[in-house]
Design brief:
- This protein is α/β, with parallel strands linked by helices and about 260 residues long.
- It folds into 2 domains: about 10-190, Vaccinia Virus protein VP39 (Rossmann fold, 3-Layer(aba) Sandwich); about 200-260, rRNA adenine dimethylase, C-terminal domain (Helicase, Ruva Protein, domain 3, Orthogonal Bundle), CATH 1.10.8.100.
- About 35% of the residues lie in helices and about 20% in strands.
- The chain has helices at about 20-25, 45-55, 65-75, 90-95, 115-120, 135-145, 155-160, 200-210, 220, 245-260; strands spanning about 15, 35-40, 60, 80-85, 100-105, 125-135, 160-170, 175, 185-190.
- The protein has a 7-stranded mixed sheet with strand order 4-3-2-5-6-9-7, sandwiched between helices. It has a two-stranded antiparallel sheet with strand order 1-8.
- Strand 2 (about 35-40), helix 2 and strand 3 (about 60) form a beta-alpha-beta unit.
- Helix 1 packs across helix 2 and helix 8 crosses helix 10 (about 245-260).
- The longest helix is centred in the last third of the chain and has 14 residues, at about 245-260.
- The protein is elongated and about 65 Å long.
- It binds S-adenosylmethionine.
- Keywords: Cytoplasm, Methyltransferase, RNA-binding, rRNA processing, S-adenosyl-L-methionine, Transferase.
- It comes from Duncaniella freteri.
- Specifically dimethylates two adjacent adenosines (A1518 and A1519) in the loop of a conserved hairpin near the 3'-end of 16S rRNA in the 30S particle. May play a critical role in biogenesis of 30S subunits.
- InterPro entries: KsgA/Erm (IPR001737), rRNA_Ade_diMease-like_C (IPR023165), rRNA_Ade_methylase_Trfase_N (IPR020598), rRNA_adenine_dimethylase (IPR011530), SAM-dependent_MTases_sf (IPR029063).
């Protein structure tokens, strides 16, 4: 199909052509009208249009020059609110100074979707809500509870600070060009946790190290984090595999490693 902006594979450009899906995604943040929202990768503005119509205070961050030109021409009301930038490199606290809360939304570029969520996590004290569409497998992973195969690093790191919900699945044929996989829409809302009650850097290291060797029990994958030459503590948590642990158990594990060191 002819498209005003030529889709570029390297930028993960699959333009949404079903307006009803765009409206449904925009509606996910209806309850957050009071805070500004940053849209990642607006492309030709199919989602932006609904965010504006709903009265959100919207800024957009887009990396593709051709899309930016399109937006400038077709959305004059966005004047001064289009960031010609790589979302992953934006200092979001400078964009929303003084610790201001904001939301993030998008039909995200699938090639960098995990990195996008790691970037959002860096601003967890300001990002109150984050929703949007990504490839189904990743969307499922973000929302995966303990005890499921889909659980991974981002599930635990995000769920420590956010309630993550998988909302609905979207078929390939509503995009131009269609992606190879189905898509999923999620929403994450900030929980009321202000501190994990453990060394948060070590918590991250433990989550990443455990899932780096997900078939091993934690006793084997985390051995290197305990002091050498000393027997490991006798904790039932160490007999588990990473996908079996809740956030609270990862925190407990972090405390265990800290107290052993
Ligand atoms: C899946 S398309 C979605 C476009 C549009 N929102 C839609 O629904 O049709 C992803 C968009 O993200 C943009 N993009 C890719 N990498 C980006 C990055 N690092 N920062 C900002 N935008 C990016 C692409 O140029 C593209 O417009």
């Amino acid at each position: 199909m002819e498209s005003a902006v030529k889709p570029k594979k390297a930028l993960g450009q699959h333009f949404l052509i079903d307006e009803s899906v765009a409206e449904r995604i925009a509606s996910t943040i209806d309850p957050w009208k009071g805070i500004p929202v940053l849209e990642v990768g607006p492309g030709m503005g199919v989602l932006t249009k609904y965010l504006l119509a709903k009265g959100h205070d919207v800024k957009v961050a887009e990396i593709d020059g051709e899309s930016i030109e399109y937006l400038r021409y077709n959305f004059p009301e966005l004047n001064g609110r289009i960031l010609d930038a790589d979302f992953l490199k934006i200092d979001l606290s400078a964009l929303y100074p003084d610790g201001k809360n904001f939301g993030v939304i998008g039909n995200y570029p699938y090639n960098i979707s995990s990195q996008i969520f790691f970037h959002v996590l860096d601003y967890k004290d300001q990002v109150t809500v984050c929703s949007g569409m990504l490839q189904r497998e990743v969307a499922e992973r973000l929302a995966a509870p303990e005890g499921t195969k889909a659980r991974g690093i981002l599930s635990v790191l995000l769920q420590a600070w956010y309630d993550v919900k998988y909302l609905f699945t979207v078929d390939e044929n509503v995009f131009n060009p269609p992606p190879k996989v189905k898509s999923g829409v999620i929403i994450m809302t900030r929980n009321d946790v202000t501190s994990l009650g453990c060394d948060e850097r070590l918590f991250k290291t433990i989550v990443k190290t455990s899932f780096g060797q997900r078939r091993k029990t934690l006793r084997n994958s985390l051995r290197g984090l305990f002091p050498a030459g000393v027997p490991l503590p006798d904790s039932p948590l160490l007999a588990l595999r990473p996908e079996q642990l809740s956030v609270a158990q990862f925190i407990e594990l972090t405390q265990l490693v800290s107290s052993a060191g």
